[in-house]
Each structure stands twice: as structure tokens, then as C-alpha cells.
């Protein structure tokens, strides 16, 4: 059977023409998909697979395969327009390109009418602010403008009418239309996404926390995290982290992707229009891969601009302005449930450090904070998420077949989840134990400064955020780097904990069994490591 070379279907029964040029983006995407499905495949084997799969005249080099895998997110999320090209459309001035695109998206979000001439003029302003020499600057011609618009999918620049505040009457008038939209989708295919700030080192002591937040710009302890989940709570999207530096010290020279996170950075650690559009295209791609059509509900934040993006599997619907505190599920308790769990982990560690005599019991590095955040998000139950959606009254109740009961009464009262109440009690105990001037639980979970995740940026701020910071600056206090425990140290600690729990094995049996599983995993890892060392040694090694 003729082999498809990735450019189209072979015709006839004649000899298949081998591909001699560079790989297409479609082929690069296929390589990334195969690597994802077979994660233990070597790059050499992957190159051989690509040669056979695409009928290439030569096997791709290891360096080529390595570069493709490093950029797998770019290829897996690439739209159809770029997939047909030999390579992704690039620019010689990525910082200028990013700053200008964020400015355009911000204008769209603010309903400011702009045209091509204004974009070219602003490009010249940004080039000046970025100190690009005159001789090196691109000519901001109509051809340049067309390429810029094509890279970002910008087509029409027009105002969309004015937006004003929404009162309760206007909100009630908009709900019937919103209900008609949500009735068209299964609960598992209705999503909401929203961002929150997280000052991940903040203490529960009012005096300490005030100092931390006042110096937060210098301390750089802020993260922005975007969370998404569907209406029946069956699917929680991977958290999207935004930090200050591309590779904070705690990452130990690795990227967020290499550490298993969806992570991006800018100097403000805030959401931007470009970051949002990247997230949205990635979400649309995942729905396409799952062969699903879904509804995505969003608030009217300045960065939430879908613009002219071509989304094949996601329908974006904006919630009425100034209404999200009442009808957005993430604001109805889901993000609060996340913060309860994050703060619980943080304060338990603070108690451990206090007992150990540490002077700075609230300090934690960014990597550990991100690990706690992922664990906290994964710990939220589908019941908690489903209850928050019901509270927002934007869904009709469903029958046993999942069909909307349009005459049914929508639930509005928050159902008290026993698990959430237990966590709250733990937090209150921790706060009272640790803090001389305790914060209220409400202020710990919902400090006003953490809710500020969107902003209208000045030109200087847009340019500043476009400049990528690889690592934290030298004047920033170093991250806490914990010494790596050996396998024997880990096993010894676990044995001590099990010995304590086995004083009452009936009560703590499930915890003991979980710790036994961890023991087995560590021991198995050590055996595997020793076997690998034996395999790597050559015969001459044993005669030294």
C-alpha cells in the first residue's frame, strides 16, 4: 500500500515518491503525538519511525527529533493554517511582536477602535522602547502588517459597542438567554475558566502578611493560576501557572514543561491576551482530539479576548459584565476550595518548621508551592465542583438521561460539604496556633490583592512583560532549596511514622497501607537504579 508522506494522499499504484525536503509542521505534530503515546521510545527509534511513516529519503537526525520534542506544545497546539507550512511563522523580533500583539488584544478588550496605520505607528513606538537600532528595525509596511495579522489571526479591528455595569435587574433579564445556551450541552461539556492570584508565602498573621504584601513586588512571591472545570465536576483542566521568571532558581535550570507543569512567565506574573489565546487554542485542540464540542463560559476580564481565533470545538460565551461574583462557578466556591487546601499544606509545613526551630517558617520556594497547588486542585471533589455550579443558577436541573428540566427550580443555596467544613476547622486551628495576630479565615482565603489578576497595562508595562526573564535577578532573595534526601533517609522516616501509627492500627490502617505503597515505590526505584548502573558498566570496568 502506498505510504502517505504527510503532504497528501498518494495517487494511483505507481511508485511512491520519497519526501526529500524538510519535515512539515503536520509531520512534526505527528512525531510529537507518537512520542506522547509511546513515552519510553528513544529518539533514535522515533527518527526511524518518522522515516518509515512519512517515506523520507533520509532518517531525521537525533538533534532534529530532540528539537521537535522540546517544542511539542507548540506543534500539538498549532492551528490548521500553520500546520500546512514547512515551519511555524516566526519573527526576527519576538519581544516586539509579543508587545504589539498584547497591545492589540488589550485595545480589543477595551473596545477601542484601531486600524492598520495605528498598529504600524504603535510598532514604531515599541521598537523605540525596546532599543532596537534604526538600521535593524523592520519596515512597518503593509506587507509587514499582513504578516503580523496572519501570525496572530487578527482580521477585523472594530468596536463592539460599549459595556456598562450590570445591575440585578439586567442580570435577571440575561439569565434566560444563558440558560437556553447551557441547555444545548451535556453537563460534562460545559466549562468555566477563571484566574486567581496566589501569594504563596503569605502568613496568617495580620502584621506579617501586611509586610509581605507591601513588599510583594520586590519579593516576587506571586503566582497567577488559571483553573477550569466542567459542570458535573468530572473533568478538571490542568492548572495554568504564570510566574515572574522562565526558570526560577527552584526549577534547577529545568523548564516548567520538563517539570510537568503548564507554565509561562512575564515580569508581572499576570495573565495577558497572548497567554489567554494560547490557553484557549490549547483547550480547543484538546476538545478536537477528544472529538467533543463544548461550551466555555468566561468573565469579561481585559485579557479574555478570543478575537478572531478560529475555534472548531469550543464555543465561547461571555458572562454579563460585573456579574461573575454571582453566576461564575469558579467564584462560587471552587477557587476558595483550592485555597483552603493550599493554605492547609502551607500551614502544616509552617508548624513543622516552628517545631524544628526555624526562623522563617512561611518561606517556601516556587516549585514546592506549585506542587502544593496541583495537589490541592486534584483534591477537590466532583461533588464540591458540581454544587458550586448549581449555586450559580445558570443550569437547569437534569433528568436521569441528562436532559434539562426547563420547568424545574434552579438550586441557589450552597450545600455545606462536610469535607470543606473539616478543612475550615483545621485552618482555624492552625491560624490560632501559629499567629500572634491571627487573620480571619476569610482574609486568609480571599485577600483582595490576590483577586487582582487582570490589568490595563501602560505601553511601558507591555514592553516590560514582553522581555523574557530567564532566572530571578541576583538581588532577589534566593529560593529555599531543600537538600535531596537519599532513598535510605526516606525509608527511615517512613518507618518511624508507621511505628507511631501502628500503636493504633485499627484507626490508622488506611494511612499505614498508603505509606507501605510509598515504601514499595522507593525500594523498587532503588532496585531499578542499581540495575541500570550494572547495565551501563562495560566489561573492562570489572577489571580495574
Kindly describe this structure.
The chain has about 550 residues and is α/β, with parallel strands linked by helices. The chain folds into four domains: about 1-90, no CATH class; about 95-150, Homeodomain-like (Arc Repressor Mutant, subunit A, Orthogonal Bundle); about 190-450, Nucleotidyltransferase, domain 5 (2-Layer Sandwich), CATH 3.30.420; about 485-544. The protein contains 21 helices and six strands. The protein has helices spanning about 25-35, 45-55, 60-70, 70-75, 80-85, 95-110, 115-130, 140-150, 170-180, 205-215, 215-220, 275-290, 325, 335-355, 365-380, 380-390, 420-435, 440-445, 460-465, 485-500, 505-535; strands at about 190-200, 220-230, 240-245, 260-265, 295-300, 315-320. Helix 14 (about 335-355) crosses helix 15, helix 14 (about 335-355) packs parallel to helix 17 (about 420-435) and helix 20 runs antiparallel to helix 21 (about 505-535). The chain is globular, with a radius of gyration of 27 Å. It starts with about 25 loop residues before the first helix and ends in an 8-residue tail after the last helix.
Low-confidence stretches: 1-15, 157-166, 473-477
What spatial order of strands do you see in the largest sheet? 4-3-2-1-5-6
Rg, please? 27 Å
Biggest pleated-sheet summary: 6 strands, mixed
The total count of strands amounts to: 6
Query: Separation of termini?
Result: 55 Å
Oligomer category: single chain
Indicate the structural class.
Answer: alpha/beta
Overall tally of structural domains: 4
**Total number of helices:** 21
Helix content: 40-55%
| Average of pLDDT | 80
Tell me the β content: 5-15%
Second-tier CATH architecture of the largest domain: 2-Layer Sandwich
CATH topology of the largest domain, by name, is Nucleotidyltransferase, domain 5
Instruction: Give the CA-based shape.
Output: globular
